[in-house]
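Weekly modeling sync, notes
Attendees: S.R. (lead), two postdocs, one rotation student

Agenda item 3: backlog of single-chain predictions. S.R. asked that every request posted to the team notebook include the full sequence so nobody has to chase files. The rotation student volunteered to paste the first one in as an example of the format we agreed on. Action items at the bottom.

Example entry:
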Amino acid sequence: MRVALHTRVRADRIADYEAAHREVPKELTDAIRAAGVTSWTIWRSGTDLFHLLECEDYGRLLAALEQLPVNVSWQARMAELLDVVHDYTQGGADAGLPVVWELP
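Predicted structure, as returned to the notebook:
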């Protein structure tokens, strides 16, 4: 399944956000992959961040990462850098941006 998310980085923390993503902990990327994610890309337009991830089961991904110490630490770090922190649990397994159109 594909899931699109939107977050917003603080204007004064863009460089810090990008630097953090050059150093995502291997333990976290390994856990994300183990939870069924095959791809995760983040684009930035100004302060808006758009995420597209492909995974087997988004609900299972959230459950696998929720209490994982490396993820809890990462989410706390990201909360310092973001104006809009996407609530990944809002809407349950179907959370994310709604699909408006897709090329048939």
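Discussion: group reviewed the output briefly. The first strand starts at residue 2 and ends at 9.
Action items: rotation student to repeat for the remaining queue; S.R. to check formatting next week.
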